[in-house]
Every structure is written in structure tokens, then in C-alpha cells.
Amino acid sequence: MAFNFDEWVDRSHSDSDKWHKYAGKDIIPLWVADTDFRSPPAVIEALQQRIAEGVFGYGYPSPELTDIFVRRMRELYQWEIQPEWLVFLPGLVCGLNLSVRALTADGEKTLAPHPIYPPFVRSSNFAGRKQISAPMVLKNQRWVMDLDAIEPRMDGSAKLLMLCNPHNPGGTVYTREELEAQLEFARRHNLYICSDEIHCDLLLEPGVRHVPIASLSEDAQQRSITLMAPSKTFNIAGLGASIAIIPNAELRGRFIQTRAGIVPGVDILAYVAATAAYRDGEAWLRDQLDYLRANRDRVFERINTMPGLSMTPMAATYLAWIDASQLPVDNPHAFFEQAGVGLSPGSDFGNPRFVRLNFGCTRALLDKALDRMEAAVKAL
């Protein structure tokens, strides 16, 4: 069955956060990380069947979802996980916040790459923890974390290494060797690890493989909390069902205790959507990846011909990290908004001279946005 990712779904009059931001304005929204594609038909059908029951009482973690996810980890990563390691959450961001609060104490610090997805910084700020920033640097046209740069700042106060793999922004998929170096750094400095791997299914570069850092060794498992979700993969972010994989029973207990009375359980419809997506969504995902890969190539080619803009190759995600540092404007984000394209400001991630473009949209809309960007920079 072929899936039509060119289909236009008008979200401008819906409850879409992405499209509501620019309601009434001629600005194309290519910012927040959800796509404009219909979710897999299997997900829609499963939701319709569940809704037809007409009763929506309290739910509990789906045994079927647990079994599917355990099997998925085995088949994709040769990682043998146990059902009792799983903690289901109504979103991945709360997992970041819970990890910081469960694994660090007052006066202790976290450590994260920079630039980074904004909740990494906020989760530390919300908990009153200072964060050490490890710079992301370009090596062989890939954004990678420079741990050597922060070695002199490691005085024993940092307790949690927060990773993002694939990295957001930048789309880097860390190699096994890079992950082993990160694990060795964590071991040497006695750090726990929280690894956000929400984009692990969105690999665009042929031959690139995702490796969960916790799958590297028993030591990696015992010091790690791994966060995954079907939300970005299958465009069901509004149906929050995320999974924390915590092999260490003591850490898992701290995580669950920190959550108690604050973070609710997963919505029953979110369980239905997640189960259907993982069980029956692979054919749809393969077609989506083909479509996104072509969109990525289109963005890469066109951005790198626009005066003042550049981007490096990206292996994963549908989020292009665009360098606008050579553009003769004070605020690249505001500049492109005025040109009719709503991007994510690089300042949210830690570098105001960049912008992030979400190419998880129809090709026609993407071309329209790129045409506007090109006309704007050429008019300078």
C-alpha cells in the first residue's frame, strides 16, 4: 500500500499549536516538531474502534504495548530489556525533568551538549540545578559533542550527563565509538546518564544505525535512563505516550517516587495509538522516511545556494539546523518571519545566529517556504 504524503491536511482551523501560532497571518509554520502528515491508517482505525466503545475510564499500561516494545528493542538493537524496566509517561519532556530531580540533589549539576533542545536546559533550571554546557562542534561535517572542552570544569559537582541521540538540533546519529567515549566519560566522572532517543526511528541516511547508549554494556545499563516514544515517528505527539527504560531498580524507584502525585498516567487513547503505531505502522514509516529523505535533500541543496545561509548534512530527524551567521541581519528568525516563514529561533537552542526548519510537511508547502526564504535573502 502506498501512502500519500503529498496530501494537504488543512490544520489552520484546528487545535494545532503549530498552525495556531500564525493564525490570520501569511506565515508558513515550519517550527515546532510535529509533521503535517496524517498518522498511519492503522492508528486512526484503532482509535476509532476504541472510541466506539464509548467508555473512557481509568486505564493501565498496556501489556500488548509492553510486549511489542520489548520485542522492538531486541529486533532493532539486539538489546534484551525486561518489562519491569519500563515506566510509561505522558510525554518525553517530563522524563527529562524527572531524571534531573531523581538523579541529582541540591548543589549538584547536570551536563548537556549545547546547542540543545530547550527542555534540556529548562529541566535543570526548573529543578534549581546549574548545567555545564559541552559545545557541539563540527567534525567531518557532523555536529558532535566536545567532551574534552569541558574536562577542566569537571570538579565532581556534576552528577548527570544528558544526551540527545539523534541530536536535536543538527541531526547527528552518534556512532558506537562516540557513544563508548561518552560512556567512558560518564564512568570516569561517576555520572548517571539520561538519553533522549525520541528521534531514533527517523534515520534518513542509508547505512546509519541507531545505538541506544544503555545497550553498550551492563555498566551503561546500570547508570542510564533511556527515553523513547512513538510520537515524532508516527505524528502522534498530541497523544502523549513515552517510555523510560530504567534497568537499575534503585534508580527506577527514585524516578517513580519523584513522579508520584505530580506526573499523571498515560491517557487510554495514547496507549491505543502507541500500540497500533508500533505494531502496524512500519510500512507507513518506511514510506514516510523516503518522503522525508527527499525533503531533506531538497532543503540541503537549496539552503546551501542561498547567500548567507548554510547547513551541514544531517543523518536523522526532520529538523534542519541552518547557519545564518553570514546573513547581514540582526535577528534571522524575525527576518524570515517577515518574509512569511515561521522557523524555530536558534536562540531557543543556544545560538541566535541559527534557525531550525521543520521539513515534515508536504513538498509543495516546503517549496513555497524555500522560495520565500530565497527571495528574502537575495533581496538584501
UniProtKB/TrEMBL annotation:
Its cofactor is pyridoxal 5'-phosphate. Residues 26-372 form the Aminotransferase class I/classII large domain. InterPro entries: Aminotransferase_I/II_large (IPR004839), C-S_lyase_PatB-like (IPR027619), Class-II_PLP-Dep_Aminotrans (IPR051798), PyrdxlP-dep_Trfase (IPR015424), PyrdxlP-dep_Trfase_major (IPR015421), PyrdxlP-dep_Trfase_small (IPR015422). This is cysteine-S-conjugate beta-lyase. Keywords: Lyase, Pyridoxal phosphate. Its EC number is 4.4.1.13. Gene3D superfamilies: Aspartate Aminotransferase, domain 1, Type I PLP-dependent aspartate aminotransferase-like (Major domain). It is an enzyme of class 4 (lyase). Belongs to the class-II pyridoxal-phosphate-dependent aminotransferase family. MalY/PatB cystathionine beta-lyase subfamily. The keyword Lyase applies. The keyword Disulfide bond does not apply. PANTHER family: PROTEIN MALY. It holds the Pfam family Aminotran_1_2. GO terms for molecular function: cysteine-S-conjugate beta-lyase activity; pyridoxal phosphate binding.
